[in-house]
Write a structure and sequence with these properties.
The protein has one domain. About 10% of the residues lie in helices and about 40% in strands.
Amino acid sequence: MNRARLRPLFLLLVLVSVLFAHLLGLNWVQRQLPQSERLALMADPMFTRILRPTLATLPLRTPSARPSPRVGPVIAPSPAVVETPPVVAPDQIPVEREDAKPVEKAELPAAEPSTALPGPSVDAADGWPADTRLSYRMGGYYRGNLYGSARVQWQREEGRYQVRVDMSLALLSVSMISQGEVRSDALLPRVYEERFPWGLRRMAFDGALVRFDNGVHLPQPPALQDTASQFVELSHRFSSGQEELKVGRQVNLWLARPQGMAFWTYDVVEEELLQTPELGVVSAFHLRPRPIANPTGVITAELWFAPSLQYLPVRVRIDLGEGNFVDLMVERIEQGAASAPENGLSPRM
């Protein structure tokens, strides 16, 4: 038979073989997940109002008594490797690539000078925000320019919470979901999932151990958060006064991902004016992570929290290594019913 005729048939067989192998692998992953621990999503809450920048009152709690370091004129401290030893041994958790090149910096439109928007604004009586959804415009670069959208949604049902992060790029969608308990001073994650078109990865927390979906069980450090819950946890720390959000300060956080756990330190490097698509110019504090000991991957996130918007994260930049990144800028913040008098809330149009 003519070779020219055989070539399309050969390519078709290769494609079918690859797809079949992919389906078998996905099916195997699904069968490894304990059925009793699968995450059931909460029903979406009703959002009735749009949150807008506002002057705000003092935090609900007095900042901790830790001594505040003196800050000189330089607002970006040099990164230093965290000395606290990580819980995870390098040979216990699968390691991602660690050969990343320096990450390029994202460009943002220049912000016009504006009056400062200082002060926290906490909507819920107990210090936690009402049900909230933040919608973001997403840009970035990965072998070409990226465009898409994202959202972070926080909700509570009695003593339980759910934080869901959804990112959409063309035909690709990724979700990160955290569920657990709400205490007066902190979130206690119980289940965390990352959902991809080709499968999912999951962790379970019982207070003593963190159970990874590769069969590894590791001791759970105190106040451990996951990739999704950290956004709301940090926002609450700032709005309640547990952590002082001030240039020169540092914020410590145990953080778990499906690849492992590490002790992160964020430096509050500067206060910036961000030009947002719908909310105008917003003042926000920029948190930059330090390099960590024995990293389990090259992915890091820089965060910007806005005091005038209940200390919510108005910008998130995720560095993927080798010059690739995703940059999220808030467009709209919607909230549900609040148990305290509203500040800076306008009726939803």
